[in-house]
Amino acid sequence: MENEVFLYAYDWRQPLNQQGAALKDYIDDLLTNKPAGTQVRLIGHSLGGLVIRSYLDNNPNSHKTKAAMTVGTPHQGTVLAYPIWEKGEVWTEDWIMKIALTQLTNHCRYIIRPINISESRFSRLRIKTPKEIIQLIAPVVRSLLPTFDFLRSEGVIKKSANLVYQNDWLPFHPFPPNLYDTNFYTLSGDNVSTLRYLDVIEPSQEEKNAGDWLDGRPINNSFVKEGDGTILQLSSSVAGVKNETIPGDHGEIISGEEGIKKILQFLDLEKVKPAEVVPLPEVTSARALIVSIDKEAKLELTDPKAKTVISQENIIVSYNPVIGDFRLRITPQVTTQAYLHLIQMNKGQEAKSKTTLVNLRKDRPVNFLFSYSPSGQPILQQIPGR
User: Fold this and answer.
1) How far apart, in whole angstroms, are the C-alpha atoms of residue 300 and residue 280?
2) What's the domain range around 155?
3) Do the beta carbons of residue 345 and residue 377 sit within 8 Å?
4) Among the three residues 284, 300, 334, which one is the final residue of a domain in this structure?
5) pTM for the whole thing?
6) In terms of domains, do 330 and 201 share one?
7) Model confidence over 179-228: pLDDT tens digits?
8) How far is residue 58's CA from residue 169's CA, in Å, rounded to a whole number?
9) Are residues 355 and 341 in contact, defined by beta-carbon separation less than 8 angstroms?
């Protein structure tokens, strides 16, 4: 198994204990036919580092880890989890996470009731708020709330231990002593403006009634340079283990040249020459167009330059989309009504979304046309299809 590399994809929405158990199953299965005593080296970026911690914490005497490295991991949480959990607002400039959370809240907004109606008939819809959706669908966000003090009211720091909403995992899973016996490393980003404090005021009565900002509505932000733009160094490093810091933001420290060199050193592969760094559209793009549907169907999106992309798991994400007319072809796998979602995202701006209820018949393609521009709002026009 030496020099074999495996990529483990986890369901980031689920509670950390569940994610750690799933990682155990994956590792045990991976080592089934390997010699007894075979161990692995684990590298986790961001939340992935907490998944590793959960696995090690849950299996203190039976884990099969030779060494572990966390990169930009919120070992003490992140301030950016606060607006997501308390109001459903996504402040992060981590493009991948922003797209994921925006898509999640938009895709799950419509809850059908009662649940026993036929697929072809829809009763009244109740639109859930982004906060309700996050708390229902992605409970792991609460496990990312800071365990350090980060709120200030009239200049006075509010103790995190006294807040209405508190981290539900980290305080009950302190960095266990047995992990010091494992070769445990952390890598943190530096010299990127990172949110440190939020100045808050009492929420309005309307906000209180809605359950929003129960620990205070932010009115001002304070930043420091000791972080990667998403995670503060005080959170991504761990006292008593091998901590290193490199310049770079949350994405660069895992995908940039210096970050890759650090990872190769951790893997005892210093002599391996890193491949040329290829810019990732998920990181470098300034705009994104997201198309998704909530029923099983094949989506084909053709841009103004006649480039066609086919959906994976009922979703297409186009980075830096070409301005002009797009053609969307939907091939349903079932006869039903479905919600089709179009989301336009520009970095530094609020996302624009359009949701349309469409009638689908199994294996009969439906074609739409819409124009895309960063400042516009897409309007779907159904066109005859073959």
Assistant:
1) 22
2) 1-88+129-284
3) no
4) 284
5) 0.83
6) no
7) 666 789 999 999 999 999 999 999 999 999 999 999 999 999 999 999 99
8) 13
9) yes
